[in-house]
Design goal:
By secondary structure, this protein is mainly β. The chain is built from three helices and 19 strands.
Length: about 260
């Protein structure tokens, strides 16, 4: 669902969409001047992007500096840095073990205590065996691969901060069962089960969800509840669901700061 920027180069030929140049030009200077006028005439047809896309698409070599994406967030979640100052962690294995995840799996990366920028080695569909509990200072970056989390429990962001999720598909999420689930390398706790949300944000702050596809979950697509704040939800595609909008539980203690944005 990522937006794409199409750039059109301007060349002087015999017939161009904005102007026509004849072969009657006898001077290279006249031809150069004609090209300049042509460029001015066509420049008004430039693509208009929203602030986030203008930032993230500014450089074509994004793969060499993935963490620069964290500089593009706007709104109340603008301080979310995810794993910007951490190492790159590459997911190579789509399997899942909620209690003892293997290195190379998504769960192994998201539970670590240190900041990590998580990317994917290839296209993959991940069917989680229980809810994926994220730790603080993590980015899930799906750029460069088709990444789906589907047909199982999905993502829980609970009691943490500085989480970025970008460019993945989350769909057909199911309720999680009661059982043991790892939340940090040193803690495996008993969970009572999850509701079947696509993304559940609970008592968390500085969260940015951007350019994700969400559909057909048993409960909400994105639930933001219980003292969560400083969140930006931007450029996501919600579809095929009767709870398409974000679900919000009112709170009195902590100010609820949420930005939802899409388009220019």
């Amino acid at each position: 669902m990522n937006a794409q920027l199409h750039l059109t180069s301007i060349k002087c030929t015999h017939s161009i969409g904005c102007l026509s140049l004849t072969t009657m030009a006898t001077s290279s200077l006249l031809l150069l001047f004609s090209c300049f006028i042509l460029h001015l005439a066509c420049s008004s047809q430039s693509v208009v992007l929203n602030k986030i896309d203008s930032c993230r698409l500014a450089k074509s070599n994004w793969a060499s500096n993935r963490q620069a994406l964290a500089d593009c967030v706007i709104g109340f979640g603008k301080d979310a840095i995810g794993g910007k100052y951490g190492a790159i962690y590459e997911v190579t294995d789509p399997s899942d073990d909620p209690i003892s995840p293997k290195p190379g799996t998504l769960r192994y990366g998201v539970v670590q205590t240190q900041p990590l920028w998580i990317i994917f080695a290839k296209d993959m569909s991940i069917q989680l065996k229980n809810e994926l509990i994220m730790n603080s200072y993590k980015t899930i970056d799906g750029r460069g691969a088709k990444v789906e989390i589907t047909n199982g429990p999905c993502i829980t962001i609970q009691g943490v901060s500085h989480v970025i999720i970008h460019g993945i598909s989350i769909h057909d999420c199911k309720p999680g069962k009661a059982g043991l689930v790892m939340s940090t390398p040193s803690h495996v706790g008993h969970r009572q089960g999850s509701d079947g949300d696509g993304i559940s944000i609970f008592a968390s702050s500085n969260v940015w969800i951007d350019h994700c596809f969400l559909a057909r979950c048993v409960d909400g697509l994105i639930d933001i509840i219980h003292a969560s704040t400083a969140i930006t939800i931007s450029n996501n595609y919600f579809t095929q669901h009767d709870k398409v909008s974000v679900t919000i539980l009112r709170q009195k203690i902590i100010p609820f700061l949420l930005t939802i944005t899409f388009g220019p």
